[in-house]
Write the structure tokens for this entry.
Amino acid sequence: RDALVTITSPTEYISDLSWSPDGTKIATVLTEDTPVVWSALTGDKLFSLIGHTAEITALQWSPDGSFIVVHANRTNDRESVRFSVNRNYDLWKINLADQQITQLTTGPGPDFSPRIAPDGKRLVCLSSPRRGPHMDVFNLLVVDLDGQGSFGREE
């Protein structure tokens, strides 16, 4: 089959991607740290999400398409732990209208694999209660996306 649309970036590679809920856009991560939104109809770059300079993965669109949640390490040690989930990777909400970045989790270990509820008010993710190489304990963490806090973490 021939490709309907081809999305290319001449100098960077795409490391993660996700469809918008309405199927008209695709969010990607270029070279592990730049979220970009493309037209799924034409392949044109619509905009880059500036100010988010951290290794990120796990793009998840909100059900209404107004924000994206990502898993990212925005700490000062991010380069030394670039490929290690054993460090403090948190979840971040990126508002697409104004590109405001809001930290959603702050635990001592990594929070990852976010999945947003169909109503867009909460998300669930996996969370490790500690840092270090012993990633044998994972908890479910439920986060309120309206800014009212989180619950479900067992320390």
Observations:
- Residues 15 and 46 are 18 Å apart (CA to CA).
- The longest strand covers residues 55-61.
